[in-house]
Amino acid sequence: MTDTLDRTELTARLSEQFDALAELVTGLDENRWRTPSPLPGWTVFDVLSHVIGTESMLLGDKPPARDRQAPDVEVKTLPHVRNEIGAFNEIWVQRLRLRPGTELLGLYRAVIDRRRAALAAMDDAAWSAPTPSPVGEVPYARFMRVRLFDCWMHELDIADALGERVDEGGARGELAFAEFAKSLPRVIAKRGAAPAGSLITLALTGPLARTLHIEVGDRARYVDAPGAEPTVTVESDSGLLIRLGGGRVDAESALDRITFRGDAELGRRIVRNLAFTI
């Protein structure tokens, strides 16, 4: 399982990811922009607004002023806002919502051009500097992999909303999955309550096919060569597992698309508690 934080590789894939998002929404009419997404309370338009907000924040920009025609919403009261990061995201979404889709895409392109320039201007010290992020204080390089994962997930959100198919594998998918996979041992042990001494195998098919073994002891960790038979093997399409981890798919509706070998009760409990992204 790759854990690449190479600057050249990561910035190239992030730049490609920015382009992929723009390509998905180019040419949409206003009705399609307002298609509900898998994220509660957000349309396709709102998902791109969120990406604009985060990348603008990284440039030091503040949210635009509220349009006088827009409702004055207390974002923390919205049911899909669960924490401070969610509230920050929602402010940008609310402030951009009245703009037409073509204007939003133009703003996105301008912000992304500035972000590319900012990334290119960074020196090695800045790339490795400790930085606050959604996964705690980490090197800036790791934060950029989190950004790649977030934007990649939002590409899937937009594609799913519009009924479009995109390539979920490849170099971008591999790096995004590496970030996603960082959390799986903790999620399976804590949220899924996998008992100490258990071995969980994830047998993934599809564009990011692989087999992952997670051993639960004092702490859960990946192992390359397990010394025993898995307590449970969870066989799933990689895209389905990612959407479950992102809370985009209801676990109960997904159980019939997943095969469990071994302790099926444990496997179902793990699947029902996979959602962990903000």
UniProtKB/TrEMBL annotation:
Signal peptide residue numbers: none
Organism domain of life: Bacteria
GO terms assigned for molecular function: metal ion binding
InterPro entries in UniProt: DinB/YfiT-like, Maleyloyr_isom, MDMPI_C-term_domain, MDMPI_metal-binding
Segments forming domain MDMPI C-terminal: 174-266
Sequence ranges assigned to domain Mycothiol-dependent maleylpyruvate isomerase metal-binding in this UniProt record: 15-159
The protein's name: Maleylpyruvate isomerase family mycothiol-dependent enzyme
